[in-house]
UniProtKB/TrEMBL annotation:
Name of the protein described by the UniProt record: Transposase IS110-like N-terminal domain-containing protein
Domain Transposase IS110-like N-terminal: 26-154
InterPro entries: Transp_IS110-like_N, Transpos_IS110
Species of origin: Pseudonocardia xishanensis
Pfam families attached to this UniProt entry: DEDD_Tnp_IS110
Amino acid sequence: MPLSTTRSPAPTSTCLPGTAPGDVTAGLDWATADHAVAIVDGRGTVAEQFLVEATGAGLRELVRRLCRAGVGEIAIERADGQVVDTLLEAGLTVVVISPNRVHNLRSRNGSAGNKDDRFDAFVLADTLRTDRARLRPLIPDTAATVQLRSAVRAPALTAPRE
């Protein structure tokens, strides 16, 4: 069940628009206990930074805060999992930026390269703002693909190993 009924369906295009909807982008650096989030405006200024718990309630809070800030696109380092599923169900455009790329981009934004979740969330959001032509939105699997993947995995999970 979608968490937000006011958003458009997840993207089906392989290109991002020239500017972000609402002139804001977000980045999320996920972790086991909590997720760091940064929202930046069209000039790259941090509009908001916060942490949400890595729970169902935390994800619902995340979607509420992103919607309230007018975010339509969010960058993240993973292409799968409950966080991505929740963001897609909320109608947000999800853009995956690899952890190696984020590591390399830290110096562009003034970090010495040390891992910092809040700073990485900013790097993700700002990279989504500045490098749009090089990035592609995550296209969710169709219902048929999900069903096929489930059917293919089921025998492999239940078959005895020899």
